[in-house]
Amino acid sequence: MKLLLCRSCADVFRVRDEIRRCQCGASGGYLDDEHRLRVWGPSVLLGIENSSVETALRIARPHGARAPIRAFVFPERDGHAERREA
Ligand SMILES: [Zn+2]
To answer: How far is the CA of 55 from the centre of ligand 1 (A)?
Structure first.
């Protein structure tokens, strides 16, 4: 799962196939028709490993315990997202 973190307002949201913006409006992004991420603003692309969420749900829910998930920050330029001006 890919999320966009706005460094201006700290809003975090999932990037989808429609244009979405953070709470302050400075950052935004969408998934284009070729499944490429297009992002802008003072944002950072975050990733959460889906398999770690599933594992955490299996641990946390039945046992009432907190369970960690694996999240990471994408480098500024690694081919996962194309940055453009708003
Ligand atoms: Zn913002």
So the answer is: 31
pLDDT at 80: 67
Beta strands 37-40 and 81-83 are: parallel
Residue found by looking up tokens 């709470």 in the block: 23
**Whole-number average pLDDT of the chain:** 90
63 and 41 Cβ atoms separated by less than 8 Å: no
Phi, psi dihedrals of residue 50, rounded to the nearest 5°: -60, -35
Q: Collect residues with CB below 5 Å from ion ligand 1.
A: 6, 8-9, 22, 24, 26-27
| Whole-model pTM over 0.85 | no
Q: How far is the CA of 41 from the centre of ligand 1 (A)?
A: 8
The 3 state secondary structure assigned to 20-32 is EECCCCCCEEEEC
